Amino acid sequence: MLGDAFYRVFGVDYELKCTDIDVNEPWLSYLDFRDHESYRKDVMEFKPDYLFHLGAYTDLEYCELHPADTYATNTLSVENAAYISNELNIPLLYISTAGIFDGRKDTYDDWDYPNPLGHYARSKYAGEVFVKENVQRHLICRAGWMMGGGPRKDKKFIQKIMGQIKEGKKELFVVNDKLGTPTYTHDFAQNVKLLLKKEYWGLYNMVCEGITSRLEVLQELINLLGMKESVRITEVSSDYFKNEYFAERPSSERLINQKLNLRGLNVMRHWADGLRDYIGADYQGYLDNLTESR
Q1: What is the DSSP secondary structure assignment for residue 100, as one 8-state letter?
Q2: Mean pLDDT, to the nearest integer, of 175-204?
Q3: Total Cβ atoms within 10 A of residue 160
Q4: What percent of the chain has a predicted confidence (pLDDT) above 90?
Q5: Using 50, 70 and 90 to split pLDDT, how confident is the model at 294?
Q6: Total domain count for the chain?
Q7: Nearest to 46 by CA among 83, 14, 93
Q8: Are 110 and 205 within 8 A, CB to CB?
Q9: What angle, rounded to 10 degrees, do the helices at 185-198 and 271-282 form?
Q10: pLDDT over 90 at 292, yes or no
Q11: Residue (of 188, 109, 116) closest to 146 by Cα position
């Protein structure tokens, strides 16, 4: 999801080498960054000016069931990136998450102390700590509820809802007890680009403006699709999905871009604007057959 946005945003001005364990685009080449020697060889051959470490397991249920694989992928690979960036003396970008907080507060700024709840959150926070302590020129950017990638790449909330609508579901169930801040991948990539230009290294919350909830995001999506009269939204508690989503999640993942605001470098738009642009750009024609059948 995020790699696609970075490819589009940075590809305009930079020569890129993009890798993944799943080579599903012509601009990707294969790399398993858990393999330090392979990772080092790949980066050394390209000789980049920056190293962006974007990949991770983000499925919380998978992470709870496979902790060893989770820490190898989300933590040790980040240590690999730190070693490589230090050897080349280049800045390292690491992507963290709002999920590292425990949800006991309503909102969290850049200086609130994390308290991760499960293996996913612990593995991501461990990556934060290692980068902060070992790489002098680093950017650690914390994202919220990610939006981006379109039907082929989006594995998060928006595509799960769009998939249900495409299946013809007339009633959508959504939790009313989860709070957060959506993050449009293209806005995120643009803000990273600005920080690199200014060379303001460090840790930043980087989410869209407008603290919200899963319920409000769904309501806005249905409004954008013009389906208020044809689709019913039913509010439920998180217990309704406890069999499918059994990993512990914080009740609030609301981040505030305090540090970006203080530096005058916050270009993250309101989440509703990002959602509108995302649907308009990546879902054109996605529901055409459904619309015609109605």
Answers
A1: G
A2: 96
A3: 11
A4: 94
A5: very low
A6: 1
A7: 14
A8: yes
A9: 110
A10: no
A11: 188
Range from 88-102, 200-214, 279-293 carrying the lowest mean pLDDT? 279-293
In a domain, 291, yes or no: no
C-alpha dist (Å) from residue 6 to 17, 78, 287 = 11, 18, 26
292 domain-assigned: no
d(CA 177, CA 215): 9
**Is the CB of residue 260 less than 8 Å from the CB of residue 191?**
yes
Q: Is 248 exposed, middle or buried (0-12, 13-18, 19+ CB in 10 A)?
A: middle
Buried b (16+ CB within 10 A) or exposed e, 46-81: eebebbbbbbbbbebeebeeeeeebbebbbbbbebb
| Range(s) of the domain holding residue 100 | 2-281
Q: What is the pLDDT of residues 248-269, one digit of tens each?
A: 999 999 999 999 999 999 999 9
Would you report the helix, strand and coil content of the chain in percent, each value rounded to 5?
A: 45, 15, 35
Given CA atoms 232, 233, 236, 240 in this order, what sign does their dihedral have? positive
According to DSSP, the β-strands at 212-213 and 179-180 are antiparallel
Give the number of other CB atoms < 10 A from CB of residue 168: 9
Gap between the Cα atoms of 206 and 144, Å rounded: 8
Q: Stretch 169-179: mean pLDDT, rounded?
A: 93
Residue 289 lies in a domain: no
Give CA–CA dist 286/294, Å, rounded: 15
CATH at residue 173: 3.40.50.720
Q: Give per-residue pLDDT as tens, 111-150.
A: 999 999 999 999 999 999 999 999 999 999 999 999 999 9
- Position 291 pLDDT exceeds 80: no
| Tokens 């309501």, located at residue | 219
The answer to the question of residue 221 being in a domain is: yes
CA quadruple 187, 204, 84, 38: dihedral sign: negative
Tokens of 123: 């593995």
